[in-house]
Amino acid sequence: MNKTGQDKKPQGEYRLKRRRGATLFPSSGSDYPPMKSLWNDRVAADMTARLLESCGEPLAWRTYASRLLGASPALVLHGGGNSSVKTAWPTLTGESVPVVCVKASGWDLGAIEPEGHVPLELSRLLPLIRLEALDDGAMVNQLRLALFDHQAPTPSLEALLHAFLPPIFIDHCHSEAILALTNRPDGEETARRALGPGVIVLPYVRPGFPLAKAAAAAFAAHPDAEGMVLARHGLVTWGKTARESYESTIALVSRAEAFLGRELEASPPSPVPQVGAVPALDEAERRYRETAPLVRGVLCGEAPEVGISHRFVLRPLLDEPVLRQLAMPGARELALSPPLTADHLVRLKPWPLWVEDPAQLAEGVADYARRYQEYTARHAHRLPTGARLADPLPRVIMIPGVGMMCAGRTAQEADAVRDLAEQNLLVKGAMAAASVPYQGLDEGHLFDMEYGVTQLAKLHAPSQPLAGSTALVTGAAGAIGWGLCETLLQNGCHVAASDLPGERLNDLAVALSARHPGRLLPVAMDVTDPASVRQGFGVATDAWGGLDIVVPNAGLAHVAGLEELELEAFRRLHRVNVEGTLLVLTEASRMFRRQGCGGDVVLISTKNVFAPGAQFGAYSATKAAAHQLARIASLELAPLGVRVNMVAPDAVFSGGAARSGLWAEVGPGRMKARGLDEKGLEEYYRQRNLLKARVTAEHVGRAVLFFVTRQTPTTGATLPVDGGLPDATPR
User: Which fold has domain 41-264?
Assistant: First the structure.
């Protein structure tokens, strides 16, 4: 099991989808469902019984309740929030010592396992409360000294808060209802009025050691309090049992939601404000498909200098509430205000980019970068030792009439940005609907959190060479197609696997999605149909904003001597091998031109271009034509920073779970002519090359990888993958 928790995925039985009505909080005329407890005694008993032997009863209950907390997007999103339990832990000498088990950074509460709460020895942490100050770096050192396992992930930034507060079970969440109470000029007083005198309300204190000390002092003064509101940060609840702490969260959030609903109902009636044009959803989707490649291109930079490490994946947010919110009067000012909580900064940055017209994108991104650099320069003296400044590019791009585009180095990261951006926009919009002014943190607090040691540790630069890259592979369900998709996926790429619809494409999607969740997109596409090719590229654009890599691989074979070759059979191969390649190259060229940030095309050619075989004229001739088209593309696309290269394999019999369609066509005749069975035929082709090598689909994938990772400044080249066939050497 991954000790960092980075590979954990939300578990469907706990994760809920956001449910929205006419408004974000319950009121008359709204179908927003009030917050309810998800506690289920039967499920809780089953789960704790299953975990009891491996982790003990307290941690088993902690795991169940934490998953419930993480199940609601209105409480927790993408690693936000944290929870803890105080219990006893065995030492190497057989003693039991008091510990606090705190959620580790990088774990998602909605999918947490028992090891996601790391034990910390309380006797090492409690004396720290006597200190006047403790910076984040020193605090992390103390937390790691209190661990029982040096390989354990670093505990949450709020670990000392959980240690210093006495209750056994503690929950902390970034409830959007609580934030809607506190993120206003009179936020602390509003929270007191909404929640009552039994709830502690702390003014904003920087998370980490300062907040832990302030919370401990406030609790000591009010030990009978129901919970604690952390202004512009969230909610803390506690209890003797996991259920008591969790249901205290639900009760207080429900109380906050009810207050907000009454506040909305009490706001003075006014005529519906004039809004800008709100497009129908299908029109917004069309505009997004046109605009997304422009956005990706501007974020990546200008070709050909851009390297593959600078790529972003885009995820759209186009639903009707968002489109309407962007069109409201004052939407720009509200959208550009600080995030709901500083915990969102690590993904959203201090503000989004607002662009009125897609034609202003380049200018807008340049202005954003300048503003961000000025912001970091103003606060550079506060930067932790050894910390590096982030790139100055936006992660959220808002375009009225188009929607929101959210950028990340991976689709998973972009999804997190999208969810957090949606929450920010809708909560701020709900406050505006109630005529409540929004007020976030000041710039200094924003910088301190954005560049805090523990926050920076949450963002790991993708280590895979194609992270952030997107590719479309045609003929993906064939033998070579499997190898191409698998190799690209293994190296971090997002792959649109296109082929004719049917069982083979479905099998590929099921197999590769299981191994590479979130990065394989099956695309039903017929390369002989211009509309289908255009739609296939559009599907990839809808998913990721555009494409960096196109691999024309679809092809057909046919066995017949020239005397017997029927014209229609030749035309059938011509439509796929030549016209299909042309249509894909044409659409790729349009995509790359629109993006303006370079790209790669790698045509899967064949050794038959250079060494054609008898009885194989239709295949050899049409693949040679496709090869020549790619060479011409290398000339025409070079000014766009696009490299076009060819890979020429020989005798690839299978890949993944697929058998080669070419060899299904050619094999029987070849076996009959040589008196061989299938295994013998593969051995024949292995023995005929210089290296006596069996050529696999994975080998072809690695050849493609060489080109698309841009290890040399090469275009218009052909790389043989044939074990060495002198007659087929390109010349």
Answer: L-fuculose-1-phosphate Aldolase (3.40.225)
Pairing of strands 96-103, 82-90: antiparallel
- First-to-final CA distance of the chain: 51
Q: What number of residues does the chain have?
A: 731
CATH number of the domain located at residue range(s) 470-728 in this protein: 3.40.50.720
The alpha carbon of residue 587 and the mean position of all alpha carbons in its chain are separated, in whole angstroms, by: 26
What distance in Å separates the CA atoms of residue 113 and residue 55, rounded to the nearest whole number? 10
Which residues, in sequence order, are bridge partners of residue 168? none
Structure tokens at 592: 């790359």
Start-end of H helices in 516-640: 530-544, 567-573, 580-595, 617-637
Task: Give the closest residue to 427 by CA, choosing from 19, 81, 25, 35.
Answer: 25
Question: Is the confidence at residue 648, as pLDDT, over 80?
Answer: yes
Q: How far apart are CA 623 and CA 348, in angstroms?
A: 48
Q: pLDDT category, 657, cuts 50, 70, 90?
A: low
Listed in sequence order, the residues at least 6 apart from 698 whose beta carbon sits closer than 8 Å to its beta carbon are 483, 486, 487, 655
CA distance 330 to 347: 24
Our separate counts of H helices and E strands in the chain read 26, 20
Query: 53-112 pLDDT, tens per residue?
Result: 889 999 999 999 999 999 998 999 887 899 999 999 999 888 999 999 999 988 999 999
Closest CA to 710 of 544, 466, 468: 466
Which is higher by pLDDT, 594 or 664?
A: 594
Residue 235 has pLDDT above 70, yes or no: yes
**Is there a contact between 593 and 550 (Cβ–Cβ < 8 Å)?**
no
> CATH fold of 281-458, please?
L-fuculose-1-phosphate Aldolase (3.40.225)
The residue type at 678: E
pLDDT band at 678 (very low <50, low <70, confident <90, very high): low
Is the CB of residue 490 less than 8 Å from the CB of residue 479? no
pLDDT, position 13: 38
pLDDT beyond 60 at 201: yes
315 DSSP β-pair partners: 406
Whole-number Cα distances in Å, 300 to 408, 544, 596: 12, 14, 9
The catalytic site residues sit at 619
Q: Which amino acid is at 583?
A: L
Is residue 415 within 8 A of residue 423, CB to CB? The reply is no
Give whole-number Cα distances, 259 to 26, 250, 254, 466, 693, in Å: 9, 14, 9, 48, 73
pLDDT value at position 6? Answer: 35
Separation CA 316–CA 285 (nearest Å): 9
